[in-house]
Design goal:
The chain is an all-alpha fold. Helices cover 75% and strands 0% of the residues. The chain is globular and about 50 Å long.
């Protein structure tokens, strides 16, 4: 676990591999595969998450393109409604806002989930990445407002009403008309 945390913090979630983690831990890569089916399971263990966000998102991404914003919003808000998940997720959000090596892991993992995987579902390319990033920013903003900052206008609603208000914005980010913007720089930081 220490080797995985170190690898994730130094090179990020996407650039790490079971092989590099095993090398760092001085074990055979098959040992890592024996305990973890994929990197997302390993991140869940490193971060001690009570649920696997990659699995939740994968389930939300199943189905027709229409309704994707509602499914993703429902999944994310549903997870945050669980008190055990919320407690750990609050730690993760606060960690992600910092500058420690662990914050790099958290940001890398969730950007990979919320942007890269959604962009794949949208067909890939710069516009899909832009749409996925826009949807992620709206989702993260809504989560911050409801569960972290407790903005009364959103925090006081039932989860069903909050989802009903937020999901159209997510759907619009994923499939609505976008202004003509330069997307050639996407992916570079």
């Amino acid at each position: 676990m220490a080797a995985a945390e170190e690898e994730f913090s130094q090179v990020g979630f996407e650039a790490s591999s079971f092989r590099s983690i095993a090398r760092r831990a001085a074990v055979d890569p098959s040992l890592v595969h024996h305990y973890f089916a994929d990197k997302s399971e390993l991140v869940v263990e490193v971060l001690r998450l009570p649920v696997n966000p990659a699995q939740l998102l994968a389930e939300a991404l199943q189905g027709p393109r229409e309704g994707l914003g509602l499914r993703v919003t429902t999944t994310l808000f549903g997870a945050w409604e669980d008190p055990i998940v919320r407690k750990r997720a609050l730690v993760m959000v606060r960690t992600a806002m910092g500058s420690s090596p662990v914050s790099t892991v958290v940001r890398s993992f969730f950007l990979s989930l919320l942007v890269d995987r959604v962009a794949e579902v949208l067909g890939g390319g710069s516009e899909a990445k832009l749409r996925a990033g826009l949807a992620a920013s709206r989702l993260l903003g809504a989560v911050m407002a409801r569960y972290v900052v407790h903005v009364p206008a959103l925090a006081s609603l039932t989860v069903e009403d909050a989802i009903a208000l937020v999901s159209p914005s997510i759907e619009d980010a994923l499939s609505g008309v976008l202004p003509d913007v330069d997307t050639d720089h996407l992916g570079r930081e």
